[in-house]
Design brief:
Radius of gyration of chain A: 25 Å
Helix content of chain A: 40-55%
Radius of gyration of chain B: 23 Å
Largest sheet of chain A: 6 strands, mixed
Largest interface: A-B, 56 and 53 residues
Number of strands of chain B: 0
Strand order of the largest sheet of chain A: 2-1-3-14-6-15
Helix content of chain B: over 70%
Oligomer: heterodimer
Shape of chain A: globular
Number of helices of chain A: 18
Distance between the termini of chain A: 68 Å
Chain lengths: 432, 279
C-alpha cells in the first residue's frame, strides 16, 4: 500500500512539475523597462515571402529598441477560425495579416481598430481610393490593403506562337468573344485551348465579371443589397459554359481542380492556357520543365475593359491592442515603398501603393511582371466583399449552382433563378 | 469440392486483404515519393512512383523555413503527457464502472456516451476563456489538460470494455486463495488489463499527436506550436501549397506514430493471448 502511495505522490509531483514547466508567462505587452512588445501575425508562406517578412521585422527591431515586434507565423488555411477564437478570448495578435474579404465580420464585430485617425498621411495618400474601399466598413477603415493580384492567363508560348493567333497585350487584350474563338483555335488532338480551375467558382466568376459590367450585387439608397442578374453578369459564365459544353475547347476535368492541379497538364502541353492568380507564376518558375516557354497575358476584356475584382492582402490592428499607435508605426515601416516592393516580390504579387508599384523592379518583362503592373490600374474591389450574408450565399447557393451550370447540368435560366431568387432569400435574413 | 471452395474463399480473402492494404498504403507511399521529388518532377504530367532525381532539398527547405524539431518536441511532450495522464485517470474509473454496477455507474456511463456528441467547436470558446482565466493560454500545460479532457470519455469507454473482459472469477479465486484487494488488483487484474491500458494510452497519444484545432487557437507563439499547426504554414491562399517541403514535413510527422504502433502492436497482441490462456 505504501508503495502505491509513493507512486501516486511521485506521479502527482511529476505532473505538477510538468505543468509548471510548460506554463507560459503572462505578457501584458510592456516590459518593466518600458519596452513595448507587439505580436505580428504574418500569413507569408512562400520561402521568399517568409524571408522578406522576417528580415523586415529584424530590421525594425534593430532600429526600435523600445518597440519590439515578435513575428508569429499564421496560416491562410485556418486564419479565420484562429482569429475568431483569439478575438473572443482577448488574445489576438496586435498586428494582423489577412485578406480584405475576411475583414467584414471582424470589423462589424468590433474586433478591429478603426485606423482613420492613426494612419499617416503618406500611407493614406499613396494607396488608391479603390483599394481603401476594400477595407472600409460603415465609414471606418479596418485594415491597410497592401498587396493584390489580378487574374491572368498563363500561356504556353510555343503553342500560342505556332497557332498564329493575335497575342494580346495589356493595351489590346482579347475580348471575351475573341478569347472564345482563340481557345477553339488552340484546341487540337489531345489538347484543350484552356483549363479553368474552378474548384472555387464564385470569386473567379464575379471578379472577372466586372470586365463585362457584371455587378450582380446592387446596393440601394437604404443601404440594403439585392441580387440582379443582367446581361453583363452573364458574359463570363456563358463563355466558360460554352467553352466546356459547346466548343469543347476547355477541359471539363479541370472544373473541379484548384490552380496548382492544372499545372502538370499545362506543362505537359495538355492545356494551352490556364487562367490563374498572378502569384502562381512562382509555382510555374519552380516546377516548369527545362526549356518550357511560358508567358503572362491579360485576362479578356469586356465593355468595362480589363477591370476585375480583387481582395487585397491587409494589415489590421486588433481593437484590444494596448499599443495601437506603435502597431501603426510598424505597419508604416513595413509598407515603406522599398519595403513593400520586397514584400511584393516575395509574394509574387502587386503592391497597392502607387510609389511601390512604380518601382522599375516590378516593370520588367521577365516573368510577366510588366503585364501585371499594367493591369493594376483596372483592379476594383471584389463585388460583394462587404455584403453581409455573402459567405452563406457563396457556399450554399452560388457554388453548387455555378458548378452545375459549368458542367452543363443546368441552363442559364435555372442558374439565374437560383443565384437571384435563392440568393435574395439568404441576403434578406441578414438585412432585417 | 469443399477443399477447392475453401481454397477459393481463402484466395478471395487474401485478395481482398491485399487490396485493402494497397488502399491504405497508397497515400503514405505517395507521400514518401513526393517528399523526395525535386520541384520539377512534382509538376510532371506523368508522375513516377520512384523519383527520377531523388533529392533531400524538400527536407532541407522544410527545416530551414519552419521550426520542425521544436514543434516535434512540443507534440511529443503534449501527446505523451496526455496519454499517460489519461490512462492514470481512466484506469481506476473504468474499474469501478465495470465492477460495481449501480445507478451511479449507469449514470456515469450515460454521461460518457452523451459527452461524445458535443462538437468541439461548441467547446472551444468556453475552454479558451477558462484556460485564459487560469493563465494557461499559450501553454503546453493548458493544451495537455484539454487533450486529457477530450480523450477521457472514449478512453474510459475503451477501458471499461477491457475490464469487463477480465473474468471476475479470477479475482474471486485469488481472494479465496488469500490475496488481499490490492494484491489481487496488482498481481491478477493489472497484467490482464495491460494490453487494454497500452491500447488506450496509444489512442490518447494518437488523438493528441494529430490534433490541430485546439493547438491552433490555444498556442500563440512559434516556440509552443505543435507539428500539425506548423505543417499548415506550408499552405498558402486558395489552396496553393509548397508541396515538396509539405510532403517532407508530413512524412516526418507520421514517423513517430508509425514507429510507436510497430513497437507496441506486438506487445498488445502478446498480452491479449496471455490473458486468453489465463482465463
Amino acid at each position: 500500500m505504501r508503495a502505491l502511495t509513493r507512486a501516486a505522490a511521485a506521479a502527482a509531483t511529476a505532473l505538477t512539475l510538468l505543468l509548471a514547466g510548460c506554463s507560459g508567462g503572462g505578457a501584458d505587452g510592456t516590459d518593466a523597462d518600458g519596452t513595448v512588445h507587439l505580436r505580428f501575425q504574418s500569413l507569408a508562406w512562400q520561402t521568399e515571402s517568409v524571408k522578406a517578412n522576417k528580415e523586415l521585422v529584424a530590421e525594425w527591431n534593430a532600429t526600435h529598441p523600445d518597440i519590439q515586434v515578435d513575428y508569429v507565423q499564421g496560416s491562410w488555411d485556418s486564419v479565420h477560425d484562429q482569429l475568431l477564437t483569439s478575438f473572443e478570448g482577448g488574445e489576438a495578435p496586435d498586428i494582423i495579416h489577412d485578406a480584405s474579404d475576411d475583414l467584414a465580420d471582424f470589423a462589424y464585430g468590433g474586433y478591429l481598430a478603426d485606423l482613420r485617425t492613426l494612419l499617416p498621411g503618406r500611407l493614406t495618400e499613396d494607396i488608391p481610393a479603390a483599394s481603401w474601399s476594400t477595407t472600409t466598413f460603415d465609414g471606418g477603415v479596418y485594415g491597410v490593403p497592401f498587396l493584390q493580384e489580378p487574374k491572368v492567363l498563363i500561356a504556353n508560348t510555343k503553342i500560342l506562337r505556332a497557332s498564329g493567333v493575335r497575342i494580346p497585350t495589356a493595351d489590346r487584350p482579347w475580348s471575351w468573344q475573341e478569347f472564345r474563338q482563340v481557345t477553339k483555335e488552340l484546341t487540337g488532338k489531345g489538347r484543350y485551348g484552356v483549363a479553368w480551375p474552378l474548384k472555387e467558382p464564385v470569386s473567379v466568376t464575379l471578379n472577372l465579371g466586372l470586365s463585362a459590367g457584371g455587378q450582380l450585387f446592387h446596393r440601394g439608397e437604404d443601404g440594403k443589397v439585392d441580387l440582379r442578374f443582367g446581361e453583363g453578369d452573364s458574359v463570363v459564365p456563358r463563355t466558360i459554359h460554352d467553352q466546356v459544353t459547346v466548343d469543347h475547347s476547355a477541359a471539363r476535368t479541370a472544373l473541379g481542380m484548384g490552380g496548382s492541379d492544372t499545372l502538370p497538364g499545362f506543362f505537359g502541353g495538355k492545356y494551352a492556357m490556364v487562367p490563374l492568380g498572378f502569384a502562381y507564376r512562382q509555382q510555374v518558375v519552380e516546377q516548369a520543365p527545362e526549356g518550357f516557354e511560358w508567358s503572362v497575358l491579360p485576362a479578356p476584356a469586356g465593355s468595362d475593359g480589363t477591370a476585375q475584382g480583387v481582395s487585397p492582402q491587409t494589415l489590421s490592428v486588433s481593437e484590444d491592442s494596448p499599443h495601437k499607435k506603435e502597431a501603426v508605426e510598424f505597419i508604416d515601416f513595413l509598407l515603406d515603398p522599398p519595403n513593400t516592393v520586397r514584400l511584393a516580390k516575395g509574394d509574387w504579387m502587386l503592391p497597392t501603393g502607387t510609389k511601390a508599384l512604380a518601382d522599375p523592379a516590378l516593370h520588367t518583362e521577365d516573368q510577366g511582371w510588366a503585364t501585371g503592373t499594367a493591369l493594376a490600374q483596372q483592379l476594383r474591389p471584389a463585388p460583394a466583399q462587404s455584403v453581409r450574408g455573402y459567405p452563406e450565399w457563396k457556399d450554399k447557393v452560388a457554388t453548387p449552382a455555378l458548378q452545375e451550370y459549368y458542367s452543363g447540368t443546368i441552363g442559364l435560366d435555372e442558374l439565374t433563378d437560383r443565384l437571384v431568387d435563392d440568393g435574395n432569400r439568404v441576403l434578406a435574413r441578414y438585412q432585417r | 469440392m469443399s477443399m477447392r471452395t475453401g481454397r477459393a474463399t481463402r484466395a478471395g480473402q487474401y485478395l481482398a486483404l491485399t487490396g485493402y492494404l494497397v488502399f491504405l498504403a497508397f497515400p503514405f507511399l505517395w507521400l514518401i515519393s513526393t517528399a523526395f521529388k525535386p520541384a520539377r518532377e512534382l509538376g510532371s504530367l506523368h508522375p513516377t512512383w520512384i523519383p527520377r532525381h531523388p533529392t533531400l532539398d524538400n527536407f532541407r527547405q522544410a527545416f530551414d523555413e519552419q521550426p520542425l524539431l521544436q514543434a516535434a518536441g512540443n507534440s511529443v511532450l503534449a501527446a505523451v503527457s496526455a496519454g499517460m495522464i489519461c490512462v492514470l485517470i481512466a484506469t481506476p474509473m473504468a474499474y469501478v464502472m465495470a465492477r460495481h454496477r449501480g445507478k451511479l455507474s449507469a449514470a456515469a456511463t450515460g454521461w460518457v456516451v452523451i459527452s461524445q456528441a458535443f462538437p468541439f467547436v461548441l467547446l472551444i470558446i468556453p475552454l479558451f476563456l477558462i484556460l485564459k482565466n487560469l493563465h494557461l493560454i499559450n501553454s503546453l500545460a493548458g493544451l495537455i489538460m484539454v487533450y486529457v479532457v477530450w480523450s477521457l470519455p472514449f478512453a474510459l469507454w475503451m477501458l471499461v470494455g477491457y475490464v469487463r473482459a477480465v473474468p471476475a472469477e479470477l479475482e474471486e479465486a485469488a481472494s479465496v486463495d488469500g490475496a488481499g484487494r490490492l494484491r489481487t488488483l496488482v498481481s491478477v487484474t493489472a497484467p490482464l488489463l495491460a494490453p487494454g491500458i497500452v491500447a488506450t494510452a496509444l489512442f490518447a497519444f494518437i488523438t493528441a499527436w494529430n490534433e490541430f484545432f485546439f493547438a491552433l487557437v490555444l498556442l500563440k507563439t512559434p516556440e509552443k506550436q505543435t507539428l500539425p499547426v506548423v505543417l499548415t504554414h506550408f499552405i498558402g491562399a486558395e489552396g496553393a501549397a509548397d508541396l515538396g517541403p509539405l510532403a517532407a514535413a508530413a512524412f516526418l510527422a507520421t514517423l513517430p506514430s508509425l514507429l510507436l504502433f510497430a513497437f507496441i502492436q506486438r506487445r498488445i497482441t502478446g498480452g491479449m493471448l496471455a490473458g486468453a490462456v489465463k482465463s
